[in-house]
């Protein structure tokens, strides 16, 4: 209800705060205006934002770059939604078992490499070098003399559903978006054909079509798995509530078993958590429905994925520089769009910073996660330095 959302926001942030819809019928997402996220949040403000995220799955704040907001602020903000995880791309030897894990040398960091593409013209935001920040960009290995490369979109997925404590929330801060639209058919890029086995060859043609209905201007595509679940017959919703899924990173791992249906502990909203058989193709072991074979699991989850990808649950989020966008990983699927992954024209630059979190929200900071919980769930262990 827009009126209730606006009242919640103005109570917490003052009369300048307001909401607007991201799609005309308001089925997913809200844009929150008149909020300066460079300022630390009060407990009431944090609580209001958590409630709006629970309610709408995606919330976005325009024009944050106008008040000096930077990636340090993004990481502080993320701490309200959960404990920030460290990102594997920031480590020189992630996954090594025979030596202590170490961060990449400054020269090898993604932010440093991005800064080299168009020297002095694009410089990453302060805080981009944090172990908790994933720099999403096509600037690495790019520059005026680089050979352009076109990359396809990712599989539909939720971020890191294959760990016992999955990611609950992800946050983007948008620095640059591509501006050209004249390539392809009036879009930034075309959707390149998939290599063999990107998706299982037995996937139904309709599912293949829905998977490939991707935005072509660098937008992030979402689908609302709470709305998709709610649209099923009540008897099927009930039956899905009993389904357990074994998830694991490698096929040889024992993995762990979790419910397919997630219940938001604050709002009570039920959603399908990562209803996708192979969320990362061959890089991560497929999900297995308890009591089903691999083929049965695939058929079962393919049917749910096709349901979730129907247009009435889909939303392509158009990014603008200065946006902070936050989404609920338990109640959405998303995918990275097809894009130019190496560029030689600065107008094609795409630069976003992502922080993702696990665990419980916190209305006051610093967080109070126990060292034991951090050691078990954040690999390598990490806490945002709070000064
Ligand atoms: Fe992702």
What do these coordinates show?
The chain is of the alpha+beta class and 387 residues long. The chain has a single domain (2-377), classed as Double-stranded beta-helix. It is built from 9 helices and 18 strands. It has helices at residues 2-13, 43-56, 71-78, 110-117, 205-211, 225-230, 234-240, 294-308, 371-377, and strands spanning 18-21, 30-33, 58-61, 83-84, 134-137, 149-151, 169-176, 220-224, 244-247, 256-259, 261-263, 270-272, 288-289, 314-317, 324-328, 332-335, 339-342, 351-358. Strands 1, 2, 3, 4, 5, 7, 15 and 18 form an 8-stranded mixed beta sheet that branches. The chain has a 3-stranded antiparallel beta sheet with strand order 14-8-16. A hairpin with an 8-residue loop joins strand 9 and strand 10 (256-259). Helix 1 runs antiparallel to helix 2 and helix 5 crosses helix 8 (294-308). It starts with a helix and ends in a 10-residue tail after the last helix. The mean pLDDT is 95. Bound molecules: fe (ii) ion. Fe (ii) ion (FE2) is lined by residues 157, 159, 334.
Summarize the structure.
By secondary structure, the chain is α+β, with helices and mostly antiparallel strands.
């Amino acid at each position: 209800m827009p009126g209730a959302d606006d009242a919640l926001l103005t109570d917490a942030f003052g009369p300048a705060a307001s909401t607007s819809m991201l799609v005309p019928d308001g089925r997913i997402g809200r844009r929150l205006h008149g909020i300066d996220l460079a300022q630390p949040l009060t407990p009431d403000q944090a609580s209001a934002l958590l409630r709006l995220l629970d309610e709408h799955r995606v919330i976005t704040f325009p024009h944050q770059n106008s008040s000096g907001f930077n990636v340090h602020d993004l990481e502080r903000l993320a701490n309200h939604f959960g404990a920030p995880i460290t990102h594997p791309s920031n480590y020189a030897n992630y996954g090594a078992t025979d030596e202590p894990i170490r961060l990449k040398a400054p020269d090898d960091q993604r932010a440093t490499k991005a800064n080299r593409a168009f020297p002095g013209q694009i410089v990453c935001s302060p805080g981009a070098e944090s172990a908790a920040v994933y720099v999403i960009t096509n600037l690495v290995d790019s520059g005026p003399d680089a050979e352009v490369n076109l990359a396809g979109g990712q599989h539909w997925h939720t971020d890191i559903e294959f760990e016992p404590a999955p990611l609950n929330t992800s946050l983007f801060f948008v620095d640059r978006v591509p501006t050209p639209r004249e390539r392809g058919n009036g879009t930034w890029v075309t959707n390149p054909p998939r290599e063999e086995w990107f998706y299982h060859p037995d996937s139904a043609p309709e599912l293949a079509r829905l998977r490939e209905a991707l935005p072509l201007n660098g937008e992030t595509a979402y689908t609302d798995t709470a709305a998709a679940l709610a649209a099923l017959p009540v008897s099927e919703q009930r039956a899905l509530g009993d389904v357990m899924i074994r998830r694991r990173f490698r096929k040889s791992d024992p993995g762990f078993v979790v419910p397919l249906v997630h219940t938001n502990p604050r709002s009570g909203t039920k959603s399908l958590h990562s209803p996708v058989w192979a969320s990362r193709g061959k890089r991560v072991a497929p999900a297995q429905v308890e009591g089903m074979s691999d083929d049965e699991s695939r058929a079962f989850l393919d049917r749910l994925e096709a349901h979730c990808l129907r247009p009435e649950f889909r939303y392509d989020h158009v990014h603008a520089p200065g946006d902070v966008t936050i989404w609920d990983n338990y109640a959405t699927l998303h995918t990275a769009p097809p894009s130019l992954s190496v560029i030689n024209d600065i107008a094609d630059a795409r630069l976003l910073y992502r922080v993702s979190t696990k665990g419980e929200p916190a209305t006051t900071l610093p967080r109070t996660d126990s060292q034991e919980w951090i050691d078990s769930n954040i690999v390598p262990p990490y806490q945002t330095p709070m000064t």
